[in-house]
## 1
Amino acid sequence: MVVAKPGLDGHDRGAKVVARALRDAGFEVIYTGLWQTPEQIAETAVQEDADAVGLSCHSGAHLTLFPEVVAALRARGADDVVLFGGGIIFGDDVGALEADGFERLFPPGTPLDEITGWLRTRLDGRAA
Amino acid sequence: MTEDRHRTFSGIDLAPVYDAEDLAGFDPARDLGAPGAFPMTRGVYPTMYRDKLWTMRQFAGFGSPAQTNARYRYLLEHGQTGLSVAFDLPTLMGRDSDDPFSRGEVGRCGVAVDSAADMDALFDAIPLGGVTTSMTINGPAPILFAFYLAAAERQGVAWRDLGGTLQTDIFKEYIAQKEWLFPPRPHLRLIGDLMAFCAAEVPRFHPISVSGYHIREAGSTAVQELAFTLADGLAYVELGMRRGLEVDAFAPRLSFFFNAHIDLFEEIAKYRAARRIWARWLRDRYGATDERSWRLRFHAQTAGCSLTAEQPDNNVVRTTVEALAAVLGGAQSLHTNSLDEVLALPTDRAVRIALRTQQVIAYETGVPDVIDPLGGSYLVESLTDRVEAEAEALIAELEAMGDGSVLDGVLAGVETGFQQARIADAAFEEQRRFDAGELVRVGVTRFVDDDALPLDLLEIPITTETAKVADVVAHRSTRDPAAADAALDGLEVAARAPDVNLIEPLISCARAGCTEGEIVRRLQGVFGTFDEIVRL
């Protein structure tokens, strides 16, 4: 799976902790590093044949950037990638992003087992 | 509850009680000294808060320069004593509001400043000779400072009368905050230029605030925050000396910025150890003879990462304890976070509570009446020694990486991701301790409520961005294009000559109405950019 930081936001603490937890849980994880455009993230996901893409944003630009990643994935025919996210995302923004296809948005402080467990269940049955 | 919990937030083992045996070898004359005297453990001034309380400096900025100007006037009217500018992410990253990469970010985390004209609007009707201004600006610090100097000039204020602080610290950008524009070495050239220019032309300004706040927010321990920050500070001392400056000519203008986290005694020990380490290195290693060079003066901000979106009213309590740590630790200025800052930029009401928190500590509790009130405490002296020893060991590791130079060691570390990897390890360990129940967040990991009360949050409408984009486009079309091009050409020529100080050419760009993005693109054409090595 791909863990990505879209836009200019440099808060990478959460993305790196989650990426490491996913790796320790047995997933193959690509962490993109900072300052990715939506196109770059979609391209990485397609090239790596990712089952899931997790986006992290702490700057407040998630309503602009997250839907652009969805559009870039769809433009590349990647319709079945499981999308999740995290960061400073609360209230109405959660519903808006869910409507865009994000299945889970994990707030700060989410236990790591909750994230890895959900992904394991969600991806269960897919080809390894 | 396991025995394991009897550790500090950063993982230092704690005894059930501390007594005289824990202070075997403790020598008050050597280890403490008097307040304001070497090794400065008790505080950097002889009279501390009896003479002057800390500066209450709330970090603020959002939306357009005019909106933020209104917030500054509000804060000054309510008794705030200094300004602190929060810039938006595009400004911090060297991009104009109409840059494609700025979409969704303009005015969101701070105020959008594209040119010196925006700086004029930001400080409209606030005489710059009468306030001190702290600017949290790092990669583009010399550029935004040039805008500020141009704005002062247009207000008719002499540069010699300007007071304040630039954050500037680029090492902590590579280490933690991740906002840089160029590779480390060109950034260090610009910082050296700024130090030399300020020493000569803007002597009341502090050109560098060496910052541990972001290192801690990125997940470091207290010891790592202290060691990496002090090592960065020592590296700037070596940088200045390599530029031929006398250490006592610039060291008194270096200041520091630390986190005020939730573990009360560990934080107090951290500040006391910081002063002692700095004083000893400056006097004994770098030969500083001016006592002002030995004084580690610091701003503190309460820990954003300790706040919770759940039951946000509890954040007022956390912030109060953290602010108390900063005051008991002898801070020179303080920002208290607002209860809603984990969710959004703060509302006026939330900012007022945060400021009032400082005022209650200052004027009601009696805490400021006695200098270093915990000095001599078995626990606090033991913890101070422990934190100091562990930080010194980590500084020694960096020094060894630089073959005896802290500057070269810090540079080698940031270029290879050494500090970044240590912090990522600590962040992962902290989350593991929360997940294991060893660390607790009230309202999140225990004592959870389902009936959360909604907060009124500050909303930054998207119209702010569209208006600012139109504004910068209009700005470019109304200035003298030949003058702007000539200033940018002059900057580029200067940048290609390795020994020219770049601050004057930057001021010329500011006067000519060049935008930040234009200036940064020109400099990147000469200096290049930088990609970090990430170790998960």
Note: The mean pLDDT of chain B is 95.
## 2
Amino acid sequence: MESVASPEKIIPRKTPLNALHRRLGAKMVNFGGWDMPVEYPANGGLVAEHKAVRSGVGVFDVSHMGDICLHTKQRPGGALQAVQHLTMNDASKLAIGQAQYSAMLYPQGTFVDDVIVHRLGEDDYLLVINAGTREKDINWVRTNTASFDCVVEDLSDSFTQLAIQGPRAVDVLRKLTDVSLDSIKNYWFTHGTACGLRNILIARTGYTGEDGFEIYIPSDASTSESVWNQVIDAGREFGILPCGLGARNTLRLEAKMALYEHEISDTINVWEAGLNRYCKLDKGDFVGRSELAKLREQSLSRTLVGLEMVERGIARDGYRCLSETGEAIGYITSGSPSPTLGKNIALAYVPPAMSNLGTTICVEVRSQKCKAQVVATPFYKRIRKAIAS
Amino acid sequence: MSYPTQFRYTKDHEWIDAKGDAATVGITDYAQHELGDVVFVELPAVGTALITGKTFGSVESVKAVSEIYAPANGEVTEANSTLQNKPELINTDPHVTGWLVKIKLSNPAELNSLMDAAAYEAFIEEKKKEASA
């Protein structure tokens, strides 16, 4: 067979808002094969964006996320059976209009990807997946549901997804929709008219540890830009800022939300990642279940902990963790200065014996050994307002 | 922000301002823009020998670590200790109060091989074009 080996330049993919980000002067990076804004320096940059989300509101273009729909083909319940087989949380508990954090696993109990499962209808589910794992995920879903009574549809390119996040997100969105937002609880969603568009999926979800919404709109550039601009205009009185992946990362880190290839990956299992409460071994069989049941009986070799730097130095992704005597004991999965706390924080895999609160762990920051301490996580937890009834 | 004409510049975006064999070193306005909000600076102790092109410290933003490279051979005579508590000076005033180290040059003639302000500005224009391509 003949093969043509041409040096092909891999051009990163663009969301429908790419031109708008560039007009706003965003600093762009390649993230999981996508050309994405990391921060908008003209509006104050990463730290200002982070703080806007914690105290007011920010808007993120997260259209790089993928969307996979599963529909029952014939017999009622077919799609549910497929979702139950594919994911570790118990999707049978979902009401229509409800979503849950979950994950797709390999047979060895490690991660294909983490997902949010939405129950759209009696026999319709939407899985929202990560950008960098789109192709792998869609192939995985198709392969593993082939024997089920369901149809799989990749709708990733059909939606522009905006995340409006922060304590004032509800006030911004209220100006743009007649949907009763107060009746949408955390991790629930509805369909309604928003920004002049009918039948828009509005979910009270996010990746910031703050209250907020994610809306899914048609992916053509003019609709996408129009909605973005309506959100910015509606948010002006609340100090809304466009936010990039930089703030998205520091916000999710403070809230200890997992990032694929960092806290979770195809070599890290559910128990190590500490995601036990999203994994329901008793719901019936699913991919990864039997191995996880076995592992449950064994002791862990490593566990995810939160660290706060005690000595001057910033722990970064991939840095080694050492014992006080200098022996390698683990590694940093994510590390950064925390804009909210004003401290340098990190997540790390270390042996369980080193995971007690207050344990001193050293982080190898380039050539230096910097002391850190195991602290409680999440690093940041929002104070939830009681909803007046 | 304009690039002072008495400075010389490296391709790694350091500036150096020399009077005889006494010089001050910092990172350029372009570099601080690329880096974003600076939150941490690591500088060498007085007496440390700098070797042209070798790293002698680092500047960190929330997002990234950036190594700083010596624009010339020399010995550190002072490190800017103000940056320990006010690293943001690198963002707000990179060419003046945000300086990093003062050094005693081994060979001041070495600076002739670096870019002047006009050449550096042309250099970063190219960089900006590449980034927006």
Note: The first strand of chain B starts at residue 8 and ends at 9.
